Structures are given as C-alpha cells and as structure tokens.
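To: structure subgroup
Subject: Chain for Friday's discussion

All,

I'm putting the inputs and outputs inline so they're searchable in the archive.
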Amino acid sequence: MSTVAGAGTSTTPHDYSLLDTQLPAGAPLLYYRLRQTDLNGTLSYSVVRTVALTAQAEGFVVYPTHVASGQAATYLYTGPSGPATLRVLDVLGRQVLTLPVDGRALGEVPLPGLAAGAYLLRYTTATASFTTRCVVE
C-alpha cells in the first residue's frame, strides 16, 4: 500500500499519480483500487481497476518534466540492469552534471544550482543511449 498526500478541501480539480515500483515478478494482471480518507476520517473506495502487464521496450523517462529550481526529478529506466551514466546537458550540449548509476530502474536526478531553462538528460549504458528533456523553472 502506498500513500499520496491530498490537497485538502478544494473546489478545483487536482491530479494525483503514483508509480508502483514493487510489481510482482511474472504477474500478467494487477488489481488496483483507491482508498480516500477524508479529513474527518471517513473512508471511501474506488472501483477495482485491472492493469494487464505487457513486455516493455527498453527506454528512459524523467518526471516531472518541469522541476522547480533546486528540486530533483525522478527517472525510470526500462532496460537491462547494469552500470550506466546519467548526464545533464544544457541546450548547447555542454555537460553540466554527470552521475554514475547502478542500473536501477528508478532513481533521482538532483538538479541543484541549475539556472532556469531547458536541459537534456542522457542515460547511457554499454549498449544504448537515451535522451529526454527537462525544464528547470
């Protein structure tokens, strides 16, 4: 079970997300439902939703794609595990940060002290390289 903090009482819509990083090996079908706890302690449950797992292509994504200055972004790598390098490049292609990563599927990209603007994040393994974009605000 995982928890996401709510926005409290609000009249505007809010989007919430959670990445399930503990998928059971070999499970072809997963079942999810949401439990909401109101400020007064009242519980309500969503309908059960199923998710069919399929083979995932090797890839690399970073989220959120817009990050507040001084905050970290999260990456997800879907390829063979093994040593890799994560580089942060400015829009001119100059390297501003290099991080060795151990091939974990999920990790953080610290973005301390970067000026506001667009950056490229390049994840390089022994056999492949993936690039995505991130904006520091």
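Points worth raising on Friday:
The longest strand covers residues 117-124.
The chain is about 0% helix and 45% strand.

D.
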